[in-house]
Amino acid sequence: MKITTLQAKQVKKMIDNCEFDLIIDLRTVDNYLKGHIPGAINIPINEITDKLEFLSEYKDKHVILYCGIGSQSKSACKVLALNGFDKLYNLANGMKTYTYDLES
């Protein structure tokens, strides 16, 4: 199980270089709509297991997950890893450290 934790600066650089195939925002819909990392889709943490079939096409692709403070995304990465995902990334300390432009 390989989960790579990245700092916000690294995440921004990798997004700019189109290195992620999928960006998942695990926060509530309300928080997602207030502002999210460009290109991110919203799958609230409590729905991640329900979305495994939808996400299965990304098992061999680079997927980053983030939440508000970093703890939920670690847990969600573990769930995905246990279900066969092997290129997982976690935004360290979540959105509180991501100070770059957001989409809303």
Automatic annotation (TrEMBL):
SMART domains assigned to the protein according to its UniProt record, in alphabetical order: RHOD (SM00450)
Signal peptide (from-to): none
Record lineage: Bacteria, Bacillati, Bacillota, Clostridia, Peptostreptococcales
Organism superkingdom: Bacteria
Occurrences of domain Rhodanese (ranges): 17-104
Name of the featured protein: Rhodanese-like domain-containing protein
